[in-house]
Design a protein that fits this description.
This protein is mainly beta and about 140 residues long. It has strands spanning about 15-25, 25-35, 45-55, 60-65, 80-85, 90, 100-105, 110-115, 120-125, 135. The strands form 3 sheets. A 4-stranded antiparallel β-sheet has the order 3-4-8-6, with no helix packed on it. Strands 7-5-9-10 form a 4-stranded antiparallel β-sheet, with no helix packed on it. The chain has a two-stranded antiparallel ribbon with strand order 1-2. The radius of gyration is 19 Å and the shape is globular.
Length: about 140
């Protein structure tokens, strides 16, 4: 929207914005959460693997490339190789950026989904030259 402007000073960290619009008796709300990074980073030195969503046993995991100080490397585009051992299965070979076992990072990260099949698994991500990252996926009881 050409006339929409944000008159706020952003600082590094997580931000949550909520908008409420009213017209007559109709009210619409929307919200947005984002992480604003102000720190400089160096070359990737480590991998981080974390669960970012769980929808009835379909788990989304995100791999992030970090420098030696733990700062996300937002320009990293390394190739990442996901793996899984245990009861679950990677939802791969789908031809999408979140449905492939081997993908190139975008903004220093990549995502894949896992069907846990109600069991226990260990997800891995590997990038040449960096230590492999592991994430244990346990069923929700």
């Amino acid at each position: 929207a050409a006339g929409l402007r944000w008159n706020i000073k952003l600082q590094g960290g997580k931000h949550d914005i909520k908008v409420i619009a009213k017209k007559g008796k109709v009210q619409v709300t929307d919200s947005l959460s984002f992480l604003y990074q102000t720190q400089s980073w160096s070359k990737p030195a480590q991998l981080q693997l974390q669960k970012v969503a769980d929808d009835k046993g379909i788990v989304s995991i995100e791999a992030r490339l970090l420098d030696e100080k733990g700062v996300p490397c937002l320009d990293a585009a390394d190739w990442m190789q996901f793996g899984l051992t245990g009861d679950g299965e990677l939802l791969d070979n789908l031809g999408t950026s979140t449905g492939a076992r081997k993908v190139q990072a975008y903004n220093g990260r990549a995502i894949i989904k896992v069907n846990t099949n109600g069991g226990k698994s260990v997800a891995t991500v590997n990038v040449d030259g960096l230590p492999t990252a592991f994430l244990e996926l346990n069923p929700v009881l």
